[in-house]
Design goal:
10 helices
Length: about 210
């Protein structure tokens, strides 16, 4: 893989990541509520799902998965329902008395935050098809496949991780400046972001084109 091809790939991925998706909204929500460091578990879950999706694409499973519209639909709507449930629960649990006392919200296990990130990314019905369609555009057929595939995968994961970290840092910075009763709105807004992530996921088309 030449430097020029890799640079073009980076520019393409930057353009694709220029608008937030379900995983970014989830990162905003969890970082605003739980803090940046715990929310890194959410980012790790998202990137783990991405890595598995890329591996599936590289192993040639994309066509098999894409052909199973029913399975994709079940995965997708299960993810939508899960995010909506989380968002509504967060909004309902927003306790004015806790916010007025200035107490910190109840801690959520890192494993739970990781699973939220993993499921949100894994529920994207187009991800494997997307990677299977994107990577061949930047792979030299005359060179070994797997080293190039590894470079493309690691580059994507690194860039996605930076974007998620930026969203998380921004949300955490804003949340720290809320005092007293205003903290109540952090959890409500976070729940709104969670529901927004579900809406975006629900709007994802099963058509790989």
């Amino acid at each position: 893989m030449t430097w020029e091809i890799w640079t073009l790939y980076v520019a393409t991925v930057l353009a694709l990541m220029s608008t937030p998706g379900p995983s970014q909204l989830l990162m905003l929500s969890n970082s605003g509520i739980h803090g940046f460091r715990p929310a890194l578990a959410t980012a790790a879950g998202d990137l783990t799902a991405n890595a598995l999706q890329m591996l599936a694409a590289g192993l040639g499973l994309a066509a098999v998965i894409a052909a199973s519209a029913t399975a994709l639909s079940v995965i997708k709507w299960a993810g939508v329902a899960y995010l909506i449930w989380l968002g509504l629960r967060m909004i309902r649990r927003a306790d004015p008395t806790v916010a007025q006392r200035g107490a910190a919200p109840a801690k959520t296990a890192l494993g739970t935050l990781w699973m939220q990130g993993f499921l949100t990314s894994a529920a994207n019905p187009k991800a494997v098809v997307f990677f299977a369609a994107l990577f061949p555009q930047f792979i030299d057929g005359g060179a070994p496949f797997w080293p190039q595939f590894l470079i493309l995968s690691l580059t994507y994961i690194g860039m996605d991780g930076c974007f998620l970290a930026a969203y998380g840092l921004g949300a955490s910075w804003v949340a720290k400046r809320f005092k007293g009763g205003a903290k109540l709105w952090i959890e409500r807004i976070g729940g709104g972001f969670m529901i927004g992530a579900a809406v975006l996921l629900g709007l994802k088309s099963l058509n790989p084109s």
